Amino acid sequence: xxxxxxxxxxxxxxxxxxxxxxxxxxxxxxxxxxxxxxxxxxxxxxxxxxxxxxxxxxxxxxxxxxxxxxxxxxxxxxxxxxxxxxxxxxxxxxxxxxxxxxxxxxxxxxxxxxxxxxxxxxxxxxxxxxxxxxxxxxxxxxxxxxxxxxxxxxxxxxxxxxxxxxxxxxxxxxxxxxxxxxxxxxxxxxxxxxxxxxxxxxxxxxxxxxxxxxxxxxxxxxxxxxxxxxxxxxxxxxxxxxxxxxxxxxxxxxxxxxxxxxxxxxxxxxxxxxxxxxxxxxx
Length: 283
Hints:
0% strand, mainly alpha
């Protein structure tokens, strides 16, 4: 009887997770093309090519740098926003809605909004800079700047999710801890550093872990915001996988790159889990 209840899940698990993983691994050792040509065994040739491909390493460096630059503000801003709302700002429901609403938008909508904002001629970003006496910036056209423009758009878009996690964690901190600290004469800063932040540490580890994994998968906003712009220096690894398979028609090589990237994600995930378990054991 139990297998009957498990069967729908096991079928879906096999069709949508196990089979794609196995088939992708098989493709990575062939010269399969999107056109249907090829398909013959090439062994580890695709992996050797990937590991010596400067474009792949450049895309990987771009992805890692984006992850570092975006994760820091996405954690810090979410924490600040959650603390402000939790302290009782007037109109809390409006603040919560405002902070979380962008996360509900589709990536295409977010990308189009920020393409308009970053328009070098009529965009709001350069209008603000002009009012401050700063020269306009080619936000999406300048290779030295456009990755940071994508970071700004991503922070605005996704910080609401981390904000919600922090807010839930703040609401789970017992009020008795703050009452005892107040009796002992602890001020707001001491309560923040000695009670709030330590109590939020498990949530912070979770948020950092989720955010790193999400940022490593950068594709949608980068691809959509930089349409028609040279992306040699700002192409993320997922976009390079897509271009290798669906633009260059090299399914086998694309699969090999994806498994190299998958190995990186596994390493990052294991490192984060180890750090989290070590922290839990120390506490």
